[in-house]
Amino acid sequence: MKKTGLIVLSICCALIFISSATKEPLTDQLSLEGVWEMQHQYIYENNIIQDTLFDVSGKRQVKIYTKGKVMWSRFSPKDANEWYAYGSYKIVDGFLEERIEYASNAMMKIVDTTDVFRFELILEKDTYSQIALDENGDRYNSENYLRIE
User: Fold this and answer.
1) pLDDT for res 113
2) Which of 50, 69, 61, 58 is nearest to 145 (CA)?
3) Domain count of the chain?
4) Is residue 11 part of a domain?
5) Is there a domain that residue 62 lies in?
6) How far apart are the C-alpha atoms of 105 and 102, rounded to whole Å?
7) Does some domain include residue 139?
8) Helices assigned H by DSSP within 23-147
9) Model-level pTM?
10) What residues make up the domain containing 31?
């Protein structure tokens, strides 16, 4: 009987050790911190993806998130405007909120009409989507990013 109890106790201890060893540490939780490149955009109708827009004309958009700050730039060979912005960000209840402090002239025209850019956020380890919502809370567009650093 003592041997059976010792075996059961050993198995329980081994299971506890194995399960605690496979859990990810808290530092590996999902984070936006890093460098991201936009891969494509989705167009929604009635909250359902209707189209995927890929950038095939050499356009490139990169965002950098670090310690509560965000910076992004877009290069488009067919657009004479410069596109970039810098500001702060936070994640609140599954939403990404960006406040732009300064930006290119083209972007400042948009910033003048918008205090906070607020997006539904879908974040995974190496991808994220920022989804724009209309006044009714319906999805209409998303930018989809891949972590590059």
Assistant:
1) 83
2) 61
3) 1
4) no
5) yes
6) 9
7) yes
8) 105-111
9) 0.79
10) 27-147
Q: Residue 27: what pLDDT? A: 38
- Which residue type is seen at 20? S
Contacts 24+ apart (CB under 8 A), 88-91: 89/32, 89/65, 91/32, 91/121
- Note whether 43 and 51 are within 8 A (CB): yes
Q: Indicate whether 21 belongs to any domain.
A: no
pLDDT at 111: 86
Question: What is the dihedral angle through the alpha carbons of 84, 87, 91, 97, rounded to the nearest 10 degrees?
Answer: -70
Q: What is the CATH number of the domain that holds 105?
A: 2.40.128.280
CA gap 74, 61 in Å, rounded: 4
* Mean pLDDT by groups of 10 residues along the chain of 149 residues: 54 51 53 97 97 90 97 93 96 97 93 91 98 97 97
